[in-house]
Task: inverse folding
């Protein structure tokens, strides 16, 4: 979350990650004429770090950051000027994912209310929109879609469950307490890693480069550069007329089509070539994020996002230099 503080009894709030029951705070500042102090929760994660960077570049100062206790935020001090997303299957999904996501979101919103915050921008995910296998195959996915909880629970897909329940709890709280809320739903988020660890969305590309045959089934809509997500978060933060849910993806297309693009960009890696539909019935759309586009957001080409991610994965040692053969 980003929370603007200190100059009004009714100030806006914007969110990044929001899973902590308690947090550790740090403050970053740079010379600026701005008088807007903001707070970002979960600010040392992949998206959160880029959000902090974008705010500093736009002149917000100071930027206060809350992080999960014990987690590493040292990389934030090198900048110029969430509910947990894990690669591992949880042993206790209710305790490790669902409860932290829902209760952590409510904790932040309650704090926002107590400090007179008038606007909240919640960084949700496409995981609260899909999987939704019942969505009509002839219809382009849009912000009216909600994840099918029964489908996810039956397949032990607990991250989408946690994101969906957290967002629904946020909307319910905002309505009951008169909080002005807006939500953003990034697709698979790519780009340079500012944080020291590997995040789940960049791991999707890493696994693909290493020959994974996972189709992403109903968990894929498209991809987006993390820089665009951060810009969109601030755009929604600064646009009073913005309301409701905003899908943030540079188009909707099959994961197999994405794999083909990656393979053409990096033929030296064993990227699997998929046949047929990887997302059954998914209807493609170039301007799926029309609500954000109408507000003026211009998306970075996916090819650039892929290149930036690959270079970062190499630099961080997550991706070894070129593999030799390509899967058929």
Result:
């Amino acid at each position: 979350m980003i929370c603007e503080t200190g100059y009004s009894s009714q100030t806006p709030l914007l969110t990044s990650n929001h899973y902590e029951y308690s947090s550790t705070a740090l403050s970053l500042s740079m010379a600026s004429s701005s008088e807007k102090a903001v707070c970002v929760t979960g600010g040392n994660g992949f998206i959160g770090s880029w959000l902090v960077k974008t705010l500093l570049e736009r002149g917000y100062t100071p930027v206060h950051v809350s992080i999960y206790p014990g987690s590493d935020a040292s990389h934030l001090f090198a900048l110029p000027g969430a509910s947990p997303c894990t690669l591992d299957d949880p042993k206790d999904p209710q305790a490790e994912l669902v409860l932290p996501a829902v209760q952590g979101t409510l904790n932040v919103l309650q704090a926002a209310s107590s400090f007179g915050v008038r606007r909240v921008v919640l960084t949700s995910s496409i995981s609260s929109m899909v999987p939704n296998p019942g969505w009509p195959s002839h219809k382009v996915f849009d912000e009216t879609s909600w994840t099918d909880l029964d489908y996810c629970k039956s397949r032990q897909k607990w991250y989408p469950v946690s994101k969906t329940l957290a967002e629904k709890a946020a909307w319910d709280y905002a309505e009951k307490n008169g909080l002005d809320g807006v939500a953003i739903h990034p697709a698979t988020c790519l780009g340079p890693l500012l944080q020291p660890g590997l995040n789940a969305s960049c791991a999707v590309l890493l696994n693909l480069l290493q020959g994974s045959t996972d189709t992403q089934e109903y968990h894929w809509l498209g991809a987006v550069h993390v820089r665009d997500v951060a810009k969109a978060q601030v755009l929604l933060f600064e646009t009073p007329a913005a309301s409701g849910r905003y899908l943030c993806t540079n188009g909707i297309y099959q994961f197999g089509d994405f794999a083909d693009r990656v393979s053409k960009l990096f033929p030296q890696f064993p990227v699997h070539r998929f046949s047929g539909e990887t997302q059954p019935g998914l209807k493609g759309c170039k301007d799926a994020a029309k609500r954000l586009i109408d507000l003026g957001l211009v998306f970075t080409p996916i090819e650039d996002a892929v290149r930036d991610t690959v270079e970062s994965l190499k630099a961080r040692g997550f991706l070894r230099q070129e593999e030799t053969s390509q899967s058929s």
About this structure: The two ends are 43 Å apart (CA to CA). The first strand starts at residue 2 and ends at 5. Residues 10 and 116 are 5 Å apart (CA to CA). Residues 3-15, 17-27, 30-34, 324-328 have pLDDT under 50 and may be disordered.
